[in-house]
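Our consortium's second objective concerns turning raw sequence data into structural hypotheses that experimental partners can test. To show how far this objective has progressed, the report includes one record in full. It was chosen at random from the queue rather than selected for favorable results. The single chain below, 342 residues long, was entered without modification.
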Amino acid sequence: MKLNYSQLSQHLTKQLSPLYIISSDEILLLQEAIECIRIAARKAGYNERTSLSIDSGSDWEKILHTEAHSLSLFANKRIIELHLAEHKPNAAANKILHNLATKPLADTIFIISTNKTDSKTEQTKWYKTLETNGVAIQIWPITIDQLPSWIIQRAKKIGLTITPDAAKFLADQVEGNLLAADQEIEKLFLLNSKNIIDIQLIENTITDNAHFDIFTLVECALSGNSKRCLRILSNLQAEGLEPLLVLWALTRELRTLSDIAYQLKQGLTLQSLFAKHRIWEKRQPGVRRFLAKHTTQNCWEMLSQAANIDKMIKGARPGNVWNELQLVTLRMAGNAIIKESH
């Protein structure tokens, strides 16, 4: 069964499926959809939760099959979350997922999350089986035109009223990034006693209370400001931010940049690629600078670094996560010393 994001809440009030597959490149909406299912499942008595992250090189049978068929320690109903990101199931995984979809396990809900799926993926046997026997939810990006309305509705949920011109101003500042918009809305709620946020108030708040964040970090890396990158990372670490969010922001940008670099070699124009990837005029100089210094191969190497950091975060590889985040960020910024050391 197919559902869109807006239908999920109503669906969960009526029934729970033993299987959900959620796809989106909007990490905020993806996480919130998963959390909605978790909450509904907990209300129904599913009190045990296991989270699995599997890549293309993983032993699917050992990890997924073993977990799926292991008995709960306390005989509880359980949720098993499988995070695929951009990875697609291999042959062994196809068989396991087919069996789980066609023969659901008792007292178990599977939640599978993945990056946005394309038409080719949706025609594969494994995806069709999951869609037929469970619930498939595709979450589409919020467009630039839709973002001001999204900001207004988002603010209403926490008791804030944002005027249309203030919402438009904020949308321009975050350039389509929902996580950044959500952060700013939360900041407005915490820093202002007024329930109505107009454009003057929002301008003052953003200007006077600007703080280092992961989105500023990405822009500084693109512009080559290595010293500021290090200050931002130090501040984020001191604030107790989850390093996984920093890694997500860097890898998301690197995937986009590697795709642009590759398609430039295929003869596409930079302007057409800016339009395709929704890179606004304000960000274009930084992207141009990055592409002048880095090749597609460089991007892949940095993504490989990022994959190693992901393993460190998950405890599968030793190392200092924040030090490694510094290295990959400085490499993005074009730091010559860092580049020579890899």
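The partners drew two points from this record. The longest helix spans residues 243-265. Residues 208-212, 336-342 have pLDDT under 50 and may be disordered. Both points have been shared with the crystallography group to help prioritize constructs.
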